[in-house]
Specification:
2 strands; two-stranded parallel ribbon; about 45% helix; 7 helices; mainly alpha
């Protein structure tokens, strides 16, 4: 998305986030990925003045930390949905073909049967229920952001989750005055409440 496309999105979508008139522009924060067109001076100034919006740029490399569904669950889920829908379509086609063969008046090709929205939703539900529950647990372990009980079991503290991104040095400071309020000179200075502390 280039700058002009993003500005068009602001004028046609973001402007109307509060009401259909677009006149009400409440104080807002918009979290965006680190795309060049999201952080140009024109865009930052326009969103601030026209839409009363502060844009905060999320540093790159955080997807594995912040979007564990994308990195661990979505791929097997989407694959399962596609497989189930393909199997259903094939089943319907075979049934239609068998019905056509049994009909002496049928002529021509057998069309590929359509699948209803209800059938698609059902296959999505089936795919979700078929997901291995360990995927979710493993995802929390991989990104080192896990429930307290699991952290106790693993003997892990949240400080470790930030070791891979220390070199980024809070890059959003260039675009926002909002900073982690409890961060000291080093990330180790953050106080972690209700988390097991390991040596």
């Amino acid at each position: 998305m280039d700058q002009e496309t993003f500005r068009h999105w602001g004028a046609t979508v973001w402007k109307y986030r509060a009401d259909s008139s677009g006149e009400n522009q409440p104080v807002s924060v918009l979290l965006l990925d680190d795309l060049k067109s999201h952080k140009t001076k024109v865009v930052l100034d326009e969103f601030k003045t026209l839409y009363n919006t502060k844009i905060i740029i999320l540093p790159g490399g955080l997807t594995p930390k912040a979007q564990i569904m994308d990195t661990h669950n979505n791929r097997p889920f989407k694959f399962s949905v596609k497989s189930k829908i393909t199997a259903l379509r094939l089943q319907k086609y075979r049934e239609a073909k068998a019905a056509a063969a049994a009909d002496p008046l049928h002529k021509g090709r057998v069309p590929i049967p359509k699948i209803s929205r209800e059938e698609i939703v059902q296959k999505m539900l089936d795919a979700w229920l078929d997901l291995d529950p360990n995927l979710g647990a493993n995802a929390w372990v991989v990104v080192k952001l896990m429930p307290y009980e699991l952290a106790v079991e693993k003997g892990w503290t949240p400080k470790e989750a930030f070791q891979d991104i220390r070199h980024l040095d809070w890059p959003w400071q260039a675009y926002s005055s909002i900073q982690p309020k409890d961060a000291g000179e080093d990330i180790d200075d953050i106080e972690w409440d209700n988390v097991p502390q390991t040596q």
